[in-house]
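Model it.
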Amino acid sequence: MDWLDSIKWDRDGLVPVIAQERGSKDVLMFAFMNREALARTAELGEAVYWSRSRQRLWHKGEESGHIQKVHSMRLDCDADVLLLEVTQLGHEPGIACHTGRHSCFFQRYDNGAWHTVDPVLKDPESIYK
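Modeled.
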């Protein structure tokens, strides 16, 4: 798999990944992939990440049903960051965050503090059983 060798993996064998929503261009989340996760993502057409907390592959939506269909994968100029163009499936509007929000980036800095600016679309207790 020569295309995987083009990536500058960090010392832990990971590469940072940004998931961006296809239509809105919203940044939904940030995660990591290892070689196997990236190869599986390319094979399935759905996002598979490396979970550092679980220390295993994590098929996005495996528990919640909020799968990310991958339309394109881009590698940055330094070959050390990936950008996925995705459609967030499983709920309308799409839920990418484990808090039940559309995006993981729901806190905005303003006047010396972080403020929650995006609503919970679905109670996480009902998503993760």
